[in-house]
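Appendix C: a fully annotated inverse folding record. The material below is reproduced so that readers can follow the format used throughout the book. The structure is listed first as tokens, followed by the designed sequence.
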């Protein structure tokens, strides 16, 4: 085997230009596939990161009606939806894919919410329990957080996020200030910020609409959950927030939690009201799936170059057999059998293709990085794709080198020695 490889390399180096031109189709094919796969994987990872964020791993499970999330700011409360208790919480926390659980209420828009003359109605208002900030990934940056007494007695105090502070207070220290909440005074006691400072990568206007526009708002206001009935209404169903153990577990965590929560509903089987997990990982996968067929077509087109390269290998190996006919006859006259001759030429074809594959990988990595710089798209070089590309190039050498190798092995020694 090693002797065949040595002879193959010597033959390739003795005809450098011809060997390079022979490998060119394989180089182009492998380079194109590596560049396409790297760009596709980079784009998919960017989509996933843009939507999921920097490791928040949170999943919202909320009541839906006919597949649409229910907004309790309008219309009557649904029948047959009991308030969730600690028994349900413990059952959710026992799921392998769930790290922590929080029950909360919210309004995406709240009327009658002012600080002095500043209308804060566009802020999202939350009524939260003691585990919300840990589950959602917030930390205190100013003032103090809710005490156990604040949460148990429903004190009229609130925390703001940094966006709400910038929007309503315009640089003024908010601690101790009073917000007028439907004619109820609520005192600001602290400011929180999300643990992650992740911002989505925006390259196009469509990216802005997909990842950024939906997240625009005037900030968030957090109230103790027990003060919620005073400001809004009693017996309002909770929304559930889960922190999954990993990003990849988000979809399963949401589905498993929804199954547990739906078992608590006291509605008929035909009811349009159900709990549904709404995780961003699933949205990312939906967007990724939209381009899957196009990606497959691009790889298929690039693979044509490999077939062309394989035909080039077969052609040059046929020429090599013709040029070395007397050499083959001499080897057979000295006792070389068909298997020996077949192995030599098949090894030469495989080595030629593998070298083309390796050069193609190098060119593909360079090409992928050039595309990233020019088109402002992320790339993710896949070790698996590189290994498959090199293995595939070797397979091309074996398949397309087989015919010339068989031809060489079947030459009659006397006819080969007489060949001019």
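Designed amino acids, in order:
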């Amino acid at each position: 085997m090693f002797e065949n490889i040595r002879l193959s390399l010597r033959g390739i180096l003795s005809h450098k230009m011809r060997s390079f031109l022979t490998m060119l189709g394989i180089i182009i094919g492998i380079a194109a596939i590596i560049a396409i796969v790297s760009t596709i994987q980079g784009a998919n990872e960017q989509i996933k990161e843009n939507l999921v964020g920097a490791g928040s791993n949170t999943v919202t499970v909320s009541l839906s009606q006919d597949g649409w999330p229910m907004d309790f700011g309008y219309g009557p409360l649904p029948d047959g939806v009991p308030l969730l208790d600690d028994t349900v919480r413990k059952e959710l926390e026992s799921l392998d894919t769930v790290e922590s659980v929080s029950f909360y209420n919210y309004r995406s828009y709240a009327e009658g919410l002012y600080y002095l003359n500043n209308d804060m109605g566009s802020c999202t208002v939350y009524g939260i329990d003691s585990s919300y900030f840990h589950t959602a990934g917030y930390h205190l940056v100013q003032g103090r957080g809710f005490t156990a007494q604040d949460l148990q007695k429903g004190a009229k105090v609130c925390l703001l996020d940094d966006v709400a502070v910038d929007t309503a207070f315009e640089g003024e220290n908010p601690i101790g200030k009073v917000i007028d909440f439907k004619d109820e005074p609520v005192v600001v006691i602290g400011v929180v910020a999300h643990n992650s400072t992740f911002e989505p990568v925006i390259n196009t206007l469509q990216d802005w609409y997909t990842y950024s526009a939906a997240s625009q708002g005037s900030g968030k206001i957090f109230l103790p959950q027990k003060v919620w009935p005073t400001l809004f209404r009693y017996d309002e169903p909770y929304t559930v927030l889960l922190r999954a153990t990993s990003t990849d577990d988000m979809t399963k965590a949401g589905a498993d939690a929804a199954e547990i929560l739906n078992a608590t509903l006291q509605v008929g089987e035909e009811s349009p009201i159900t709990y549904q997990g709404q995780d961003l990982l699933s949205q990312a996968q939906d967007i990724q799936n939209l381009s899957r067929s196009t990606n497959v077509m691009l790889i298929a087109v690039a693979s044509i170059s490999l077939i062309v390269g394989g035909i080039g290998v077969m052609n040059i190996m046929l020429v090599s057999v013709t040029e070395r006919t007397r050499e083959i006859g001499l080897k057979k006259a000295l006792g070389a059998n068909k298997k020996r001759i077949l192995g030599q030429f098949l090894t030469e074809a495989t080595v030629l293709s593998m070298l083309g594959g390796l050069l193609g990988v190098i060119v593909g990595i360079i090409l992928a990085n050039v595309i990233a710089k020019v088109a402002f798209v992320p790339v993710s070089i896949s070790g698996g794709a590189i290994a498959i590309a090199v293995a595939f190039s070797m397979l091309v050498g074996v398949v397309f080198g087989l015919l010339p190798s068989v031809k060489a092995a079947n030459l009659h020694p006397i006819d080969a020695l007489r060949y001019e």
